[in-house]
Amino acid sequence: MNADTLRHAVKRTAVLTATAGLLTAGLLTGPASAAGPAAGRPGTLAACAYYNGTALTVYGQRGDRVSQVQCLLANRRYLPWGDVTGYFGPKTLAAVKKFQSRHHLTANGKVDKKTWRALYA
After folding, report:
1. What string of DSSP letters covers 29-45?
2. Could you report the per-residue pLDDT of 35-66, keeping only the tens digit for each?
3. Max Cα–Cα distance, the chain, nearest Å
4. Residue 68's closest CA among 86, 45, 92, 94?
5. Which residues have C-beta within 8 Å of that of residue 36, sequence separation ≥ 6?
6. Contact (Cβ atoms closer than 8 angstroms) between residue 119 and residue 72
7. Backbone angles phi, psi at 29, to 5 degrees
8. Count of C-beta atoms within a 10 Å radius of residue 2
9. pTM for the complete prediction?
10. 80 exposure class (CB count in 10 Å sphere: 0-12, 13-18, 19+)
11. What whole-number distance in Å separates Cα of residue 48 and Cα of residue 15?
C-alpha cells in the first residue's frame, strides 16, 4: 500500500468513525433517510463529511470535493440526493449556477472560495 492509498484509507476511516458516532447519538440523517420520514421535516440535514476546504471545484472533476459540494447542495434542495455521485456533471453544474444566482454570486458554475463560504453558511 503506497502512502497516498494509506492516507486515503485513514481519512475514510476517520470520516466513517465520526459518522458512526453521530448516528449513535441520533444527530445524523443522510441521503437514505433524507428520502424517508425525515424528508418532510424542515431543518433535517445530512452531515457532509467528504471534504473540508475551499479549493476550486469545477465541471468534469470527480472525488471528495465534488461529493461535498453535492451534499451541501442536496441539503439545500438544489440537487436530489440520488445525484450525489462524486462526479461534477451537468446536473451539478446547473445546481451550482442556480445556488450562485440565488445567493448573489457570479453564476459561472465554478465552486470558488466565495461559493464554498455560501454553501457552508
Report:
1. B-HHHHTTGGGGSTT--
2. 433 344 556 688 899 999 999 999 999 999 99
3. 45
4. 86
5. none
6. yes
7. -120, 145
8. 7
9. 0.67
10. middle
11. 10
